Amino acid sequence: MKEEKNRHTVWLTDEAWTNVKDHYRTDNCSTQNEYIEKAIQFYSGYLDTEQADSYLPRVLAEVLEGKLSALGSRIGKLLFKLSVDDALMAHLTAASIDVDLDTLKKLKVRCIKDVQETNGEIDFEGAYKYQKELN
After folding, report:
1. Nearest Cα to 9, choosing from 36, 27, 28?
2. Most confident of 17-21, 44-48, 58-62, 105-109
3. pTM, full prediction
4. Pseudo-torsion of CA 17, 44, 57, 53, nearest 10°?
5. Torsion (CA) 114, 115, 116, 117 in degrees, nearest 10
6. How many CA atoms lie within 13 A of 49 on its CB side?
């Protein structure tokens, strides 16, 4: 259904009218009137958004807070699970491998250095190669 249009007299500067003539086809408008109407709707939407400044940040903050809270909770649960698995692995390894306390302390220092240098991106292959070089 086509919306009824009425004729209105609008006074424009020559510069504004030149902009309409230069740009209406660029925006895929079939007429200059269509371009002017779209420009008015766009600018009106812009003004409405400016007036919503007091509303939008509050709503956005509430949404982000909810999402970040859920993310934090999920990460916390995953870190707990990972820590439990890590502790299990440490106990199993300690029970099955005979390493003196001095070697263990030196290895911990090496591990701290590796984590710092690689920003935590340690891979098994690198550790394997390092251990084979020692033996």
Report:
1. 36
2. 17-21
3. 0.44
4. 90
5. 50
6. 6
